[in-house]
Amino acid sequence: MKPKNLGKWRRTHLSQEIDSDLAGEKTTIMGWVTDIRDLGGIKFFILQDFSGTIQVTAPKAKVGKDILNEIDSISKESAVAVKGEIAKADQAPRGVEVVPSEIRVLNPAETPLPLDPTGRVKADLDTRLDARLLDLRRPKPQAIFKIKHGAVQVIRNHLTSEGFVEVYTPKIVRSATETGATLFPISYFEKEAFLSQSPQLYKEVLTGCLDKVFELGPIFRAEEHDTRYHLNEVISADIEVAFSTKEDVIDILEDLIVNIFEEITEDHEEELETLEHEIEVPEKPVPRITYDEALEKLNDAGMKLEWGADFSIPEQRKLREIVGGLFFITDWPTEIKPFYIMPHEDDSKLSHAFDLLYNEIELASGGTRIHQRGLLEKQLKNKGLNPKRFEYHLKNFEWGLPPHSGWGLGVERLTMALTGAENIRETVLFPRDRKRLTP
Ligand code: ATP
Ligand code: MG
């Protein structure tokens, strides 16, 4: 069967817009065929579109032979357009169906399909990701991306209403911001360049002119992780605020996170139901403990951690049991935080860095930044980085860059928290990990 063009056909209703009050009206619907049945005197199929599903019912006594033949020839997941009449039908889902007068197969799907479109036959994650288009037609993956979209909207609206300016910084860069070990090199004409690990340096500079900035954009990490929480390309929601300290930006993050949970609970009830996931809006104030307090709690609970140790999943899981779901850890050892974090004035082993944790995952990291050129150069050297490579960045610190603070929030980790997704790959349309570069 050859694919057909739309011609003059246009969609008049989404499936969810069709209800029994419209009985008797004409409609043109477009979408994908997910299930086809022949019950003897009646043939029907389920047409699915972005909004939901609608049953298309062809009673053999009522519709023409050409329509019945057309239905017989349709394969599941084919894109189709149906013209017909809306009818009340007690036995159909939502009590309504469409009786077709004309069917146009816009693009027939090849059989066999790699996935069962109804989801009745379970597929593993790799198979699903390989056939992501088909996978994303199903309600659960769709619900995840509707919630992710909702969360990004809240971030954008919330920060805009707080006076932030949305910015876009380069993703092709000359030097590292985190550690040199996790950079993806690219060839940039005759120079060496890298994919950006974070908008860190640019957003800091922008506090010297735009005051409060945020960016929603990709970050690239050449980490060889193979965990449920790491990918090599993710979206980061980043902010940076002039004339502020970590306490100020912790407050901003706290308000934002609570706002996101509130709005998602209110506006995405249907998606949360589809995902069979319940979320609780966190209460303010979100607990804040220092690194030293966290270490003490962990060691009291039987762990044997030296001062200066970073926490990973086992420690974070333990802290979840002791402290609770959502909490901040502040004042980390300088040694395990990036070069741009401000050390304590009276004890340079400690820094003004913080993390936000939700259950056992780190959602965000931030802190007060260094705004003195001399100190920044010293910290670069301490981290084994060459200040010469940062000369363009360091120059800004001679031009009155204000004291500033900020954070980066992982949008996919946030989406995991909101949707209950067990694997971060579920929250990215086309994930990039160590083994996966396609599709
Ligand atoms: P982790 O310790 O969990 O590997 P990180 O401390 O290296 O994360 P940051 O540099 O602090 O990450 O980045 C800020 C936020 O961006 C993180 O808290 C996380 O939400 C997100 N993020 C960073 N790297 C990744 C990654 N590889 N995969 C998923 N999210 C990431
Ligand atoms: Mg971090």
TrEMBL record:
It is an enzyme of class 6 (ligase). Its EC number is 6.1.1.23. Binds 3 Mg(2+) cations per subunit. The strongest magnesium site (Mg1) is bound to the beta- and gamma-phosphates of ATP and four water molecules complete its coordination sphere. Mg(2+) 2 binds at residues 362, 365. Residues 145-439 form the Aminoacyl-transfer RNA synthetases class-II family profile domain. GO terms for biological process: aspartyl-tRNA aminoacylation. This is Aspartate--tRNA(Asp/Asn) ligase.
